[in-house]
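We both want to read discrete structure tokens more fluently, so let's practise on a single case. Once you have written the record down, we can walk along the chain together.
***
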Amino acid sequence: MAAQPGHSSRGAGRRWALLAGASLAAVAGLAALVLSGVAGGPRAPAPAVAVATPLPPLTPAQLAGQRVIYSYKGLAPPGRLLWLIRHGRAAGVVFFADNIHSRTQLRAAVRSLEAADESPDNPIRAPLLLMIDQEGGQVRRLPGAPLLSEKQIGLASDPEAAATAAGTGAAANLTGVGLNVDLAPVLDVYRTAGDFDDRYGRSYSRRPSVVSTLGADFVTALQKGGVAASAKHFPGLGAATRSQDTDKGPVTLHLTAGRIRGFDEVPYKAAIAAQVKLVMVSWAIYPALAPGRPAGLAPAVVQGELRKRLGFTGVTVTDALEAGALRPFGTIGHRAELAAGAGMDLILCSQGNVAEGEHALAGLRRGYLDSAHGKPAFEAAVERIVALREGL
């Protein structure tokens, strides 16, 4: 997932705010409790983060819609999006800088979405997932905390306190405008100065143990503040070079399975132990794990590595469905089908066009109706999503 000045971290052509990073001194004295046990190494996977509950009767279109995250352009939600929400055909919305003029305006937009969600025509009685990229440093859609980038946190005099303060600050900032999901932290372990993650300070460290500790600290503080965390980009984009950007085109990372599991996946063990609620899966291809398929379209990665090997029981979310890395995989609807078939729960449509989400919904609905043997897995994904929403 790219995150460069002038572009969204998902979706070509989207704009995002460049906000000056704060000095390390900005968080001095903001120490908080550090996640117990993580510093000594990753703990065993925690119990289930979200407990699936029985669903109310839903049409195939509603089941499909409950897996779609929409986006829109401008400062007010369009009528078509409100209609989809009122009729139970949306899991949530992701916001970008061009959706935000002020905190008052954003809160008003959130209230209109919440009002639509409370419609009697909507069978799902749970808060929408209202998401934003609020990593810290340059990657912030909403002014305010966390001011420090992950790299600055890793270099702080007390990194664990800084990571905890960043998570606490992000939670207060987001809940203040009604948002409940942060598409953070990045758990990539970067390799060289100026590479894909390091050029914008999006990695805590080149050491998996440090990324594990600080990522878990951020997750714990963020979720304690009432905002769900999304660890990304599984199984890790730390080996991507400066020119390798899945938003722009296919990316292949030639790493051995041993290297991926013993290095890049290590921070996810700590995040899972910290009960992270969501994990975003990369669109890069890892031939050692799943030749020819981006990770988010590969059952071997989503169900094999993340679910079975690491024991993650929470909600999976794709990176941007419109990403250039997925051009070889057909239409938006077909991509959504493939992602769901691989085991992805939420489908992120971040092009700023409600129609993109509707195309994804149509593909998911088609996949649900065409595959009788896949219906239990499809419904289980919706149950996980609804359980997450009910817990916010």
